[in-house]
Prior knowledge:
14 helices, 6-stranded antiparallel beta sheet, 39% helix, 6-stranded mixed beta sheet, globular
Amino acid sequence: MFKKLLxxxxxxxxxxxxxxxxxxxxxxNPEAEVYKWLRTTAEVIATVEEKAYRxxxxxxLTQDMLKAGCATxxxxxxxxxxxxxxxxxxxxKFSGVGISIIxxxxxxxxxxxxxxxxxxxxxKAGIEGGDKIVEVNGxxxxxxxxxxxxxxxxxxxxxxVKLKIIRDKKPLEFEVKRDIIKDQSSYCYHFKDHDVFxxxxxxxxxxxxxxxxxxxxxxxxxxxxxxxxDLRSNPGGVLASAFDTSSLFIPKGSKVVIxxxxxxxxxxxxxxxxxxxxxxxxxxxLLINNFTASASEIVAGALRHxxxxxxxxxxxxxxxxxxxxxTFGKGSVQEIIPLSNGxxxxxxxxxxxxxxHTSIQAKGIEPDFLIKPKITPTKEMKWVSxxxxxxxxxxxxxxxxxxxxxxxxxxxxxxxxxxxxTMKKQAEEKAKQExxxxxxxxxxxxxxxxxxxxxxxxxxxxxACVNMISMLDLAKTAQPEDVSTRKKSLEFLKAHYLxxxxxxxxxxx
Length: 509
């Protein structure tokens, strides 16, 4: 009976568009195709319900079908069967474990960790970049989307999550205590000997623009020779934060980013609403790598665009130079559409374009100065960087060719009495434990801070930026005309500073 009702329901749908068994097949009618395959789906479900040897949960079967199908649309589209859980885990304050990950395909058995937040729960537990999560609280990840895995990792503050990871082909287990992930992703330092200011942004948060604004106000007072803005391994974050950060540099009314649909039609243009904070021509060296993605790419692309647009204007305060390696190349926009039965569809609907209508999708931002990391990575991390650090490594990603084509087509216990001596001892023991805990937390924070300082001071890419800023500062006195504009400064540095760009070498005999 169930089978007959289900098939009858599907037939009624197909007939509403004039497509039944006896109807003539339309040559090109997408609506008819939808109902044709709805009928086949209904037949499969009904047949399974009636004849399958193993008892099947039709609800789970249908959800798995939708998850598998939607995942093939593109790399970032997914069906969310438990949307309320996902929404609850991602709303309000960010309670998690402090990791950066690369999206997985549903069929993948692991989720790759790119890095951990300094002094965050995962780092304290011993988890490292390059680890692969294979289980969350005993549940295997195969068949789950990235959003589902993330919702299982997140949870209420103070609760714990068990993560099984693979490191160097060995399984390890960690119990991580969830916590509010604060703005631990922004760090400011001053290279005193060189008068260079460094700002590292690992994520665009609500406080990022305010911190950047304070820095720029200081440079307007003439206190620094240059700025290093480090966006390496920054996956993006809050788009509004990235937009507000860009607004600090570029003229009022300037386009920061444009969104277009699959016909190449402009849907929205994001323009700055305030005058820039940057007033004087301080060289800004923006660091990127293959894990710089999404909103970070928008900031890098927009700042360079308006630096180039300034051309030979010596009065233009914007002098941006991009250093490092090519970025990830995520230029797509996803929206979450609520559906019936508590489900939702996260769907790629638009593409981001830079102010000059250039797409970064599957291409990324190329640096002005190619400077690679000089620390030799482990074999595993080298493989991670080469195969995962780009949009094109993701299955079903939207290709650059597709975008061009679309553009052209427009505890319970027992109670007992406790004497005062016992209570006093318990209080003393508790106070001792709390002090030990506070001392450990302070030690961990100091250790993390010391390591971060050492990494910044010895990083060859950052050192290269400091050296180039010093060169420009010297040239302002010795050869001012050669560095009077952004364009001339770029030519000067490329002529005098050796980077990792292949150089022609001639043998002398």
